[in-house]
Design a protein that fits this description.
Bound molecules: 6-phosphogluconic acid
Largest sheet: 6 strands, parallel
Radius of gyration: 17 Å
Strand content: 15-25%
Length: 244
C-alpha cells in the first residue's frame, strides 16, 4: 500500500488540484475505453470539490466514462439539504453531460435495511471486484473530528470490518440513520483520497498520522488499502500540527 500526505495552502487550492487529477484519471480511463467507478462522499471538502468541478471542469472530462456511486448517504430524501446525492447533483451533475444511468444514488428515502441490501447488490453488479470484494477505481472520503469516515463512527468498528458491502449506521449525536460502504470495500479500492480541511481537523489528523494509541478508536485509522494508493489531501489548517 502506498500512502501519501499532501498539504495545500488553502481548501480551494486542494479542490482545484484534485479536480485536475480526477479529470486526468477519467481521461486515462476513457483512453483505455474502460469505464471508471467512483464512490463519492459528503462533507464540506468534497462539497468544494464538486463546486470546482461543476464550475470549472464541466466540459473537461468525458463524464460518460464514469459510474458514480456513494460511499455513504444520509437516510433522507434527495431533496433534503442533508442529502449527499442532492449536494453532488446541485453542484456537479446539473452542470455536466452524463448519462442518467451512470449516477447510482443511494435511495435515502427508502427503508434503510432494505436499501442497504439493494445498494450492496447494485454495487456487486456494476462495480468490478477483486477476491470477491467490489473494487472501486476511486473512493473519496472525508474525516470527522471524532475520526469517523464515510458513515462509520467510533464505537462501530464492527461496521468497518463487516463482510457486507453496505451497512446501516447511526450518527451518534443526531441519531440520523445512514447507509455506508464498509472497510473491506474501501480498502479494496485502487485509489482512496481523504479530502480534509479546517483547523478543527488538525488534532484528529495528528493522532492518526502519529499512530497515537487512541487513534485506534477512529474508523479512519483502519483505511489501509490492500493494493491501492491512499492519499491524504489536507489544507494547511488541517495539517497544521504535522508541520511542527
Ligand atoms: C458525510 C460524510 C462524512 C464527512 C465527514 C467530514 O456524509 O457527512 O461522508 O464522512 O465526510 O463528516 O465532514 P466535514 O468535512 O463537513 O467536516
Amino acid at each position: 500500500m502506498e500512502s501519501t500526505v499532501r498539504i495545500f495552502r488553502s481548501p480551494y487550492e486542494l479542490a482545484e488540484k484534485f479536480a485536475e487529477e480526477m479529470v486526468q484519471m477519467i481521461k486515462d480511463s476513457a483512453d483505455k475505453n474502460i469505464p471508471m467507478s467512483v464512490a463519492l462522499s459528503g462533507g464540506s471538502t468534497p462539497e468544494l470539490l464538486f463546486s470546482v468541478l461543476g464550475d470549472h471542469f464541466s466540459k473537461a472530462a468525458p463524464w460518460e466514462y464514469v459510474n458514480f456511486f456513494w460511499g455513504d448517504e444520509r437516510c433522507v430524501p434527495p431533496v433534503s439539504p442533508d442529502s449527499n446525492f442532492g449536494m453532488a447533483f446541485r453542484l456537479l451533475f446539473k452542470k455536466i453531460k452524463i448519462p442518467k444511468g451512470n449516477i447510482h444514488r443511494i435511495y435515502g428515502e427508502h427503508d434503510p435495511a432494505i436499501e442497504a441490501l439493494r445498494y450492496s447488490d447494485l454495487i456487486s453488479r456494476y462495480v468490478n471486484s477483486r477476491n470477491g470484494v467490489p473494487l472501486f477505481d476511486l473512493v473519496l472520503l472525508g474525516l470527522g473530528e471524532d475520526g469517523h469516515t464515510a458513515s462509520i463512527f467510533p464505537g462501530r468498528l464492527d461496521l468497518f470490518h463487516s463482510e457486507k458491502i453496505c451497512e446501516v449506521s447511526l450518527h451518534p449525536v443526531s441519531h440520523q440513520k445512514r447507509i455506508t460502504i464498509t472497510g473491506p470495500v474501501i480498502n479494496n479500492s485502487e485509489n482512496v483520497r481523504f479530502l480534509v480541511t479546517g483547523s478543527n481537523k488538525a488534532e484528529v489528523i495528528k493522532k492518526i498520522m502519529g499512530k497515537e494509541k487512541n487513534a485506534l478508536n477512529f474508523p479512519a485509522t483502519f483505511v489501509v488499502p490492500l493494493n491501492g494508493r491512499l492519499q491524504w489531501l489536507l489544507d494547511s489548517n488541517a495539517g497544521s500540527l504535522l508541520l511542527d
